[in-house]
Amino acid sequence: MPHRPLARAVTALAALVATTLAVLLVPGTAQAAAIHYVALGDSYSSGVGAGSYDPNTCLRSSKSYTSLWAQQHAVASYKFPACGGAKTDDVLNEQVGSLDATTTLVTITIGGNDAGFSSILENCRFGSESDCANRVNEAKTFATTVLPGRLDTTYAEIRNRAPNARLIVLGYPRLFETGSCGLLGMSKSKRIILNEAADLLAQVTADRAAAAGATFSDTRSYFAGHGVCASTPWIKDVTGLIEAYHPNADGYRLGYLPALNAVTG
């Protein structure tokens, strides 16, 4: 007669081996799910300021935080329709076509161009204190009255196009340090009100992202101490008109990328 305890042990071992093989061989069981990543948004997502742009008008950079994250995580697919200068309408009309039911991750920075921050920064850099303050106040009003609806519409359409994706909304950093900035730097009062506007934009964006069930990644703490006028800035000043007030390569690598990693794990 067979030894029953031994026979039971052999049977149990065979079952364990079979289960283990099934886990290893069947996709989606214990293996990490494939990541199908789409990077939407404006110049802060396309990587303006980092250099190494592809030959198109969107200034997409291989040094953007989206490209770096995709390389770091060995994604199954990576689509990169983010474009310098994009507003919410551009995302809706030109970028969301890259999304579908297979998309598992979407990131976006958007809203700054809707509020006109590019022209405001130019005005504050070269205009008077009062003109700067007036333009910033106009942008704040827009950010609290008009922008929320535009963000809601954008996030809803992303959800509609990519129902199985996690949506991560990244904010903008404060652009300036408020210490000494040399004779040619922007005045301290201008830098303070511009940073206050950035704080308001971050709060509005975070609120609308939460309402949409998205994850908000606040980048401000990651850039702290590295704004314009810092000893080691990660934000460009007016060194180039197109790249002005955008992160440099270090800003995307050491600021935005860690901020995204913090919420993706």
Automatic annotation (TrEMBL):
InterPro entries: SEST-like, SGNH_hydro, SGNH_hydro_sf
Signal peptide: 1-32
This protein's UniProt keywords: Disulfide bond, Hydrolase, Signal
GO process terms (BP): triglyceride catabolic process
UniProt keyword Transcription, yes or no: no
SGNH hydrolase-type esterase domain segment(s): 39-254
Catalytic residues (positions): S43, H246
Disulphides: C58-C83, C124-C132
GO MF terms held by the record: triacylglycerol lipase activity
Protein name (Swiss-Prot/TrEMBL): GDSL-like Lipase/Acylhydrolase family protein
Organism: Micromonospora echinospora (Micromonospora purpurea)
